[in-house]
Amino acid sequence: MDWELYAWLKRGSRRKTVLLIIDKSKEPLTANDISKKLNIAISQVSFTVKELVEKEVVICLNPKDKIGKLYRVTQEGKMILNEI
């Protein structure tokens, strides 16, 4: 378990919320899907998802697409969610 990553996620309520929304979905989600579920601006969601991808707790399933990128939680992300 990466405890620095755990602490980073725990500090950011939006990061944690976005990660939970992606994890609870039965299907991969787009930033637009997440934005609608949380009722927040898509720019905020996009920034948060980008951070989560960089930290490797979320993976983009179709990174070459410019529109409609699909996201899923990685195994590392699931492990951290189980601890939070």
Q: In terms of topology, how is this protein built?
A:
Blueprint: H1 3-11, H2 13-24, H3 31-38, H4 42-54, E1 58-60, E2 71-73, H5 75-83
Antiparallel strand pairs: 1-2
Task: Quickly list its features.
Arc Repressor Mutant, subunit A; 7% strand; 84 residues
Structure description:
This protein has helices at 3-11, 13-24, 31-38, 42-54, 75-83; strands at residues 58-60, 71-73. With 84 residues, the chain is mainly α. The chain has one domain (3-83): Winged helix-like DNA-binding domain superfamily/Winged helix DNA-binding domain (Arc Repressor Mutant, subunit A, Orthogonal Bundle). The chain has a two-stranded antiparallel ribbon with strand order 1-2. α2 packs across α4 (42-54) and α3 packs across α4 (42-54). The longest helix is centred in the middle third of the chain and has 13 residues, at 42-54. The mean pLDDT is 94.
What is the helix tally? 5
Largest sheet, described in full?
2 strands, antiparallel
CATH class: Mainly Alpha
Cα(first) to Cα(last) distance is: 12 Å
Shape: globular
Task: Give the gist of this structure.
The protein is mostly helical and 84 residues long. The protein has helices at residues 3-11, 13-24, 31-38, 42-54, 75-83; strands spanning 58-60, 71-73.
